[in-house]
């Protein structure tokens, strides 16, 4: 395993059924998915800009492993498409645009609590990489093969595959929730990959918007 931090997020909110409950069959048949974020989803996407550039618990991860890329599930428009949603991409587009507009004039500061010193972190230009849902295995292989050695990457993906993604990156199965709850859009998973060791895993509630929960997924 390489020495890499991987921050996993679900795409932001979509137009869902009340409280994430499963619709009746006749309701589901009438549902038309426009594959885009809802108004609240766009609100979260913009709130994530400050979250990933200023929130202490996030920026501190960049100290030893600078943020190198943002990866989103790509939009599959092919004839046998699996993953037409634009939501994973729309969730991180504001972050990448804001980061690159500010680059290289903006530096971030991370506080070392042990020494009470502040380290200035100089961002690099941030690429936005799209990977189709069907290329999931190639994505995990590239990360495990060291494409982002010594770096941090953010991945925005559909919630159904996030548990599988975490375990594919070396997190022990018993540490990862079996499913990502359908009504939750407000959690960040942190995977810490280290050579010769099982990957570490923990969760952080984002606490960005009204209604965000303080609990993590079980």
Q: What is the terminal-to-terminal distance?
A: 26 Å
Q: From the alpha carbons, calculate the radius of gyration and give it in angstroms.
A: 17 Å
| Low-confidence runs | none
Whole-number count of domains? 1
CATH topology: Rossmann fold
Protein name: Phosphoglycerate mutase
Q: What keyword list fits this structure?
A:
218 residues; alpha/beta; Rossmann fold; two-stranded antiparallel sheet; 27% helix; 22% strand; globular
Can you put this structure into words, describing what you see?
With 218 residues, the chain is α/β, with parallel strands linked by helices. The protein has a single domain, classed as 3-Layer(aba) Sandwich (Rossmann fold), CATH 3.40.50. The protein contains 6 helices and 8 strands. It has helices at 25-30, 39-54, 56-59, 87-102, 136-144, 162-168, and strands at 4-10, 67-73, 108-112, 117-121, 128-131, 152-157, 187-193, 200-205. The chain has a 6-stranded mixed β-sheet. A two-stranded antiparallel ribbon has the order 3-4. Strand 3 and strand 4 form a beta hairpin. It is globular. It starts with a strand and ends in a 13-residue tail after the last strand. The mean pLDDT is 88.
């Amino acid at each position: 395993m390489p020495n890499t931090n991987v921050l996993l997020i679900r795409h932001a909110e979509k137009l869902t059924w009340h409280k994430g409950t499963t619709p009746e069959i006749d309701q589901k048949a009438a549902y038309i998915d426009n594959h885009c974020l809802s108004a609240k989803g766009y609100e979260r996407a913009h709130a994530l800009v400050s979250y990933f550039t200023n929130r202490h618990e996030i920026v501190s991860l960049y100290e030893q492993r600078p943020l190198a890329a943002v990866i989103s599930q790509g939009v599959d428009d092919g004839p046998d498409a699996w993953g037409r949603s634009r939501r994973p991409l729309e969730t991180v587009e504001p972050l990448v645009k804001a980061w690159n507009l500010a680059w290289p004039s903006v530096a971030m500061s991370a506080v070392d609590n042990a020494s009470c010193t502040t380290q200035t972190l100089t961002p690099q230009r941030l690429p936005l990489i799209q990977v189709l849902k069907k290329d999931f295995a190639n994505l995990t292989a590239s990360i495990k093969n060291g494409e982002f050695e010594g770096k941090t990457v953010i991945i925005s993906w559909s919630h159904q595959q996030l548990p599988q993604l975490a375990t594919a990156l070396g997190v022990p199965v018993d540490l990862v929730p079996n499913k990502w709850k359908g009504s939750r859009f407000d959690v960040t998973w942190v995977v810490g990959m280290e050579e010769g060791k099982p990957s570490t895993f923990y969760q952080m509630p984002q606490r960005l918007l009204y209604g965000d929960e303080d609990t993590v997924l079980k």
